[in-house]
Design a protein that fits this description.
Shape: elongated
CATH superfamily of the largest domain: Nonribosomal peptide synthetase, condensation domain
Oligomer: single chain
CATH architecture of the largest domain: 2-Layer Sandwich
Largest sheet: 6 strands, mixed
CATH class of the largest domain: Alpha Beta
Mean pLDDT: 85
Number of domains: 5
Strand content: 15-25%
CATH topology of the largest domain: Chloramphenicol Acetyltransferase
Low-confidence stretches: 433-437, 515-524, 910-916
Length: 1025
Amino acid sequence: ALLAVLKAGAAYLPVDPEYPAERIAYMLRDASPALLLTVSDCADQLPEPDGTPRLVLDTEPITGRLDRYEAGDLQDVERTAPLRVDHPAYVIYTSGSTGRPKGVVVTHRGLPSFAAAERSRFFVAPRSRVLQCASSSFDAAVLEVCMALVHGGALVVPPPGPLAGEDLVEVLRGYQVTHALIPPAALAGIPPADLPEFHTLVVGGEACSAELVAQWAPGRRMVNAYGPTESTVMATTSTPLVPGAGAPPIGRPVRNTTVLVLDEALRPVPPGVVGELYIAGAGLARGYLGRPGLTADRFVAHPYGAPGQRMYRTGDLAKWRADGNLEYAGRADDQVKLRGFRIEPGEIEAVLTRHPDVSGAVVVVREDQPGRRYLVGYVVCADGTLPETSALGKHVGAALPDYMVPSVFVRLDRLPLTANGKLDTSALPAPRRSDGPGRAPATRREEILRGLFQQVLGLDEVGLDESFFELGGDSIVSIQLVSAARKAGLALTPRDVFRHNTVETLAAVATEAAGADREPARTRHDGVGRLATTPIIEWQRERGGPVERFSQVMLLRVPPRLGLDRLTAALQQVLDHHDALRMRWTPGADGDWALHVPEPGSVDARQVVTRVDISHLEPDDDALRPVYEAQREEALAGLRPAEGRMMRAVWLDAGDDRPGRLLLVLHHFVVDGVSWRILVPDLMAAWQSGSDGSAPLEPVGTSLRCWSERLHTEARSAERLAELPLWQEMTRGPDRLLGSRPLDPARDTTATARSLTRVLEPEQTEPLLTTVPAVFHATVNDALLTALALAVADWRRRGGGGEDTAVLLDLEGHGREEFAPDIDLSRTVGWFTTVFPVRLDPGRAVEGDWRTGSTAGEALKRVKEQLRRLPDNGLGYGLLRRLNPETAPVLAAGRTPQISFNYLGRFAAPAGTETSPAEWTADSLGDVLTAGSDADLPLAHAVELNVLTQDGPHGPRLVATWSWADGLLSEPRVRDLAETWFTALDALSALVLRTDTGGWTPSDLSLVSLSQAEIDLLESDWRNP
């Protein structure tokens, strides 16, 4: 029937009767065929087509009529119209990204070139016996039919039923098959066998491993073929594969076919660089049946071809090898994203199959519980026994970055396959746990990590399968968790926390800290010497003005009898351990700055610490506050960054029977919000070890000096240069003045700044840290910034500032983006902050009733997607703007944001009890973290918002400090903005009480191409079945 349709001049549509009835019905409705050909065994099982005539070929009188026809080829005069090469030959349905199959219309034009390539590259001849292994609904069946019949060979049609494993071996041997196309997934399940007649093996349909080549290439011709349905089955083939040559290439294009590897701007990429694969030539399909929009999207104009020539955008990634062969690099849409990291599962699978006990593997991202996405490795083991999970994890971790190590490994007897012989991912089982939710810790590591989750998040109970981030954690707190784990004897990285965000999965990948095999290599003094300037230091230099008092300040409650000698020894140990604390700053006559870190011991702690006796004062805040403020001013005046005096410590000694206070003033060049979470525990540990400072402190991973050098190299990388258009776009649009005039560095200085602090109570704060991010699959920052964008746009509109809903902000981040696997900044002290512009547009929700309706949720989804566009949380902007002389002037020409936002994360407030606060925690006399600066330092922004979460005995509170230039804005205007922001935060918190809000956004669903409207529609259907 297939051949008859082709010879008659029509196009055939193959329909596998084993397909579900619903899919068959869809294909028949969508294709609207002129005639349905079938046989009696299938006819009763087929759905009734709407108006399509049906011809049952094995019934009378049809069989009698067929017997009377002549056997010769048809001529054009016998056809209803002449047959031409551009007429359709067949329509084959392939899966669509939205679940709706699409019919590919393939013409006769590419078939001659395709058949010629089979003869020349597969060495098919009249005596060849070609196995029909593929379903007729799969275009591999076209390859098999043409390979046999066009060249005079025999087509071996096996008995019905699955063709895999031992059954496939029996067919190959029993029918003396010489040529077969077998997908790698099916090939991996075939046991070793003696097949002397099996001369030519073609693999295709998915990536083939070097291990399969080593097993199957000896003694036969093994060829790797590549080609999507849209290019007449086959676009490239390799030469015969040789064992030991690494990953097999997909070869060179077949006759009358052109392949191109292009970047996002459709420019050819050089050899060795991965790009997207495009195909052009005679084999290109017409397009998708009845889908002009999709056809136009995938079949695009050929930028290097003749006028009117098209090329097909495959969605596959590839690169040219030096020898002119193409190497397949995975699917562009196979990339998955977990916590900001882009992952190619195929790369992990290739590493897993190199394990001696693993014969097959597949890696997928699962989400068996809403919001919990994790990597699962499914492995087929050579001897049926799953190796230790830790062994598999270490095996993968030895070749790939930590974030690419699967959280769970599952043993399978064989990989599930579809009817077409490809991997059936829908049949992969969910990982099973031996215990239900709420089980007790089963190992020492689980016990330790559960306690650490509770400690850093301030919770009484944590389930082993609860997400760190849904419990209120963030990227800054994850760094605290890593440090606490190391102190408890477990080695983790911040990336481990993002990838394996539950106690259970983290415990599976944690290693003993003593092993130190996860620590980046570091020499004893690689942090000593000239320090290359960093983007944030350059930002401060360009700001201008004095910086001697530019600092951060913290006041700690400390034990009685702290002891001056013991405190000095502890400070000396901390100064020697953390390089940044010894930094020297030298301003040059030309305006440039030089930074240098001298050897440990170069800063004498005895010159840093001062004792002040306050034992005669009443133990209340009113009596202590004047002393604290005076000592704070004196300590700020004692900072001398040019002399290396970056730290001052003042012990307010309340006597032997009362807790004292420790005032720490550090120059901002050497400290940031994360650094305090390292310094305070280290200082406490050093003090507790005694006056000799003998207790070793936790080791530092990547030094500040190494990090700064890596940044300069990274600033010139191709990946960062590719970000330039994004950052230009951020600062290109309009940004109306907030106040009466632009910011003036001569007039608007720290001395003229005003500030306002507002506190959100625990019952309002708690949802913003937990349920709101969980419901929207977002972060705390996403929620805070959405509320700020809503508030600023609403505030501007009410103040006559126009209807523009977009808000241009300078966003500050912690900056500890570990963009390479050997970087570990979890224990490094310094100023790592990033400052980058972002234009956030909450949309027309600003004009709607966002205070009480669901439009605030729509705004959150929009802002979340806008933030997800930023690679490495904005790190690249500072690199291109401050460290690359070629791109710096381009970005300097953009607009400067008038508003800045900085979320400092969570801080432990005074713990213990209300009457007896815990030691070595922030004292209520001062704010958790305050800033010091020189009076003449120019303000960087018209309005700055600094936010932190303060954990306390009654729960977390959000503390927001607004600072502004007094000459630009009045206090009532700023207070109005602050109140509007809190109103927006309450609106977001209220959303979690609704059943019609929350859900996914496109960045959460990287495996499919869905718009927000399509996602919302699907979720609405699920909520209201």
